[in-house]
Specification:
Elements lengths: L1 E8 L2 H16 L3 E8 L11 E3 L3 H11 L3 E5 L2 H10 L5 E5 L6 H18 L2 E4 L3 H10 L5 E3 L21 E6 L7 H14 L4 E6 L6 H13 L6 E5 L6 H11 L2 E4 L8 H8 L4 E4 L15 E3 L4 H13 L1 H18 L2 H14 L4
Parallel strand pairs: 1-2, 1-4, 2-3, 4-5, 5-6, 6-7, 8-9, 8-11, 9-10, 11-12, 12-13
Length: 356
């Protein structure tokens, strides 16, 4: 069995997902490759068979040479028609819903996708997020739907004995765009600094994916909140280096703040928890798979800066609760998000589509 995952650009959570699942599937008898239409900073993390091209002829030759049993198109509606009509691909086509943003944005995307799904797709693959599952049930009842829980490399993403920063660090990982809600992180950080003046903010992002208006507003907000000397900005850090940073935050007595409006899975959050870095997060749907309030992490209501600061400060000040959450969070990820479980579920989906 041979499959191809396609996505727009090698970056972000989808790049992490593709890299992890290709390794897991290859280890369980399913040859898996990835095609990105554009190169991205995530290519520095590459460990498998990855192709990068948007040229129809090059993609056609790839499909002809590799003879994939199925192509999984992540979030790319146009790829469905492209595969079937212009590239004459005869195998199974699965549309995967990842990174669709807010609920409103997801509704808009699915509405546009309906005629393409009806005409060209054999199934839809959905992460275990309630809002996406409900939307596809309501809007695309005609489609075969499969739900597969994500996975995490908890061996690589584990607590490390790092240097300890001389101040508590608050870490945020994402993109400078609306759904990631970066502005709320700055406001939460500003509030926490009022209580703990030595706190520093660590901001990790990919500038190549930043929305221009958001990037400008970001630096303006830093100035308004007087955070310019309180923030470290980290650009395009290789994924393999992130366990070190998460461990440093954990050892500093700091926390991760996740402010997303909606998440399909939330890889950065899961990775942080796996490294022993406690997390305060919005209830952005996908993270419910591994955050239970006051057990494996903490939730705060979207937009409630004071409540977010309260929850973060409790994790920073209450050592007993912090240790309990750190331990339970990692144990939950190790127990429930193994690569083997993903490979088993993926094979079940392939078999249901008569691919053996």
């Amino acid at each position: 069995m041979k499959v191809l995952f396609t996505f727009f650009i090698a970056s972000g959570g989808v790049e992490t997902l593709n890299r992890l699942r290709c390794a897991a599937l290859n280890n369980h008898g399913i040859e898996a490759h990835t095609l990105y239409l554009m190169p991205g900073t995530g290519l520095q993390n590459n460990t498998g068979t990855v192709f990068t091209t948007s040229d129809n002829e090059e993609i056609r030759l790839l499909l002809e040479q590799q003879q994939y049993d199925a192509v999984i198109s992540t979030s790319d509606i146009n790829m469905l028609e492209r595969l079937r009509v212009f590239l004459h691909y005869k195998g199974k086509i699965i549309f995967e819903a990842q990174g669709l943003g807010t609920r409103e944005a997801a509704v808009e995307t699915i509405e546009m996708a309906i005629p393409y799904l009806q005409a060209y797709a054999d199934a839809v693959l959905i992460p275990p997020t309630l809002h996406l599952h409900q939307l596809f049930m309501d809007m695309c009842p005609f489609m075969h739907r499969f739900i597969i829980t994500g996975m995490l490399d908890t061996t690589s993403f584990a607590p490390l004995e790092t240097d300890i920063p001389p101040y508590p660090a608050l870490i945020w990982v994402g993109r400078l765009e609306y759904n990631k809600n970066w502005r709320e992180f700055l406001n939460i950080g500003h509030r926490i600094i009022q209580e703990k003046p030595d706190t520093k903010l660590w901001f990790f992002h990919d500038p190549t994916l930043a929305v221009t208006a958001d990037e400008q507003q970001f630096y303006e907000t830093l100035k308004i909140l007087d955070l310019e000397d309180k923030i470290g900005i980290f650009s395009n850090i290789p994924n393999s280096k992130m366990p070190m940073y998460y461990s440093m935050v954990a050892r500093s007595g700091g926390v991760m703040i996740s402010t997303s409006i909606m998440e399909g899975f939330g890889y950065a959050v899961a990775e942080a928890i796996s490294c022993g870095c406690p997390v305060v997060s919005t209830d952005s749907d996908g993270v419910r798979a591994f955050i239970t309030h006051n057990q494996t992490g903490k939730f705060y209501p979207l937009g409630q800066v004071e409540q977010a600061a309260y929850e973060a400060l409790e994790l920073m000040n209450n050592k007993t609760l912090r240790t309990q959450i750190q331990k339970a969070g990692r144990e939950h990820l190790v127990s429930h998000f193994s690569p083997g479980a993903y490979a088993h579920s993926f094979r079940q989906m392939m078999n249901a589509l008569a691919i053996f």
